[in-house]
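Summary of Year 1 activities. Much of the first year was spent building the evaluation harness for sequence design. The harness presents a backbone, in tokenized form, and records the residue chosen at every position. We chose the following record to illustrate the format because it has been used consistently in internal testing since the harness was completed.
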């Protein structure tokens, strides 16, 4: 749903759920993991509010840190592109898109207007196709709605694929259906090339073409989280931790891993399970059940086994492609199925209602062109917190 946040279709708050709502019986830290010592069973965190490190002991540990963007060591591209992995990324991309339309509206130069209104997406997998489809619809609709000084012919939407096809995770027919739709909507698709360099207002491709653009969006790959790579345990060739059929680290039965950071072997196919959201959801259930069994000294742990129910992607306004139970579905029906599936898997009833209302509102009203400004964070470096001091709640209970 991040592409829809980037286009303003959804409110950032509506697609997120506060962790504390799920941690009412747990102690929650808003912090960054600095290191994990598997031998000593210690997790060192860097606290958000003061930047100080704090060590936590554990009996059981779950690794579910996801993955990082992979720029393949290309610093110019990393510094001049917008990734789309977090809500913050989506907000930044939305602000960039709105800012470029505002600047373009103030110039009478065709060349400059084209440069400001060229949006280039690198990577033609699910993330790339969904973001180009959403941004394309958002920009074109916004220009018609509120920017009379912008010539719509100066809008350029470009999707870069290092392969011959797009959406390689789906079958060829669905990929070609998505390609045909995007082209019809004004998206230029460049195949069999890579982005090799980028600057403030351009991106250079491996075939020598230089595209003038001020907005480069990166969905060109992910890599294993650096903290996961640093763990002293067995990894696959990509740096993911190897786990057994119960999703435990080998030689560390007290440590479980799931999602993008775990290499989980499918014993039926001899291949590793793909790092998709539906697999991660199922993995999380198995991990929770196995920790509960371990705490109860129940040795009958649950094995992980899962068969994909299918894969889907939205490719623009009321359009999508889907492969479900061997069936290929395109168009409005695929789009409706996508929305229904994701709405049903949101964690709370409140979020389901908010997103449902958001979708309904956007179907009847114009595009939201609100620019969210930058925020300021104040760090408290001179305040010391004694971690051994009981919480106020515990102190009050003790006084009763």
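For this record, the design step produced the sequence shown next.
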């Amino acid at each position: 749903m991040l592409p829809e946040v980037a286009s303003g279709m959804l409110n950032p708050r509506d697609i997120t759920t506060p962790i504390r709502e799920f941690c009412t019986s747990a102690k929650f830290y808003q912090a960054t993991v600095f290191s994990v010592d598997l031998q000593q069973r210690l997790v060192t965190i860097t606290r958000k509010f003061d930047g100080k490190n704090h060590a936590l002991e554990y009996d059981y540990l779950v690794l579910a840190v996801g993955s990082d963007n992979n720029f393949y060591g290309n610093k110019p591209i990393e510094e001049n592109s917008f990734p789309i992995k977090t809500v913050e990324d989506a907000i930044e991309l939305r602000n960039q898109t709105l800012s470029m339309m505002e600047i373009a509206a103030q110039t009478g130069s065709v060349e400059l207007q084209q440069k400001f209104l060229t949006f280039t997406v690198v990577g033609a997998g699910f993330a790339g196709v969904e973001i180009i489809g959403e941004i394309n619809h958002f920009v074109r609709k916004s220009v018609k709605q509120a920017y009379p000084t912008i010539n719509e012919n100066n809008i350029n939407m470009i999707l870069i694929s290092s392969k011959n096809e797009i959406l390689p995770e789906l079958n060829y027919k669905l990929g070609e259906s998505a390609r045909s739709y995007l082209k019809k909507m004004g998206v230029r698709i460049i195949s069999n090339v890579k982005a090799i360099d980028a600057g403030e207002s351009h991106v250079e491709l491996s075939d020598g073409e230089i595209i003038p653009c001020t907005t480069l969006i990166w969905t060109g790959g992910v890599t294993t989280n650096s903290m996961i790579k640093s763990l002293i345990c067995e990894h696959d060739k990509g740096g993911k931790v190897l786990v057994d059929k119960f999703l435990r680290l080998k030689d560390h039965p007290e440590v479980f891993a799931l999602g993008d950071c775990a290499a989980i072997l499918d014993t039926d196919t001899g291949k590793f399970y793909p790092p998709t959201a539906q697999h991660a959801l199922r993995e999380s259930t198995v991990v929770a059940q196995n920790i509960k069994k371990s705490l109860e000294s129940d040795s009958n742990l649950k094995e992980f086994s899962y068969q994909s129910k299918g894969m889907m992607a939205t490719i623009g306004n009321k359009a999508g492609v889907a492969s479900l139970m061997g069936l290929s579905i395109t168009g409005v029906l695929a789009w409706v199925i996508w929305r229904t599936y994701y709405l049903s898997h949101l964690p709370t009833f409140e979020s389901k209602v908010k997103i449902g209302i958001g979708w309904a509102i956007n179907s009847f009203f114009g595009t939201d062109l609100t620019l969210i400004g930058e925020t300021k964070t104040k760090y408290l470096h001179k305040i010391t917190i004694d971690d051994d001091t009981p919480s106020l709640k515990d102190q009050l209970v003790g006084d009763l």
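The chain has eleven helices and 23 strands. Quantitative recovery figures across the full test set are reported in Table 2.
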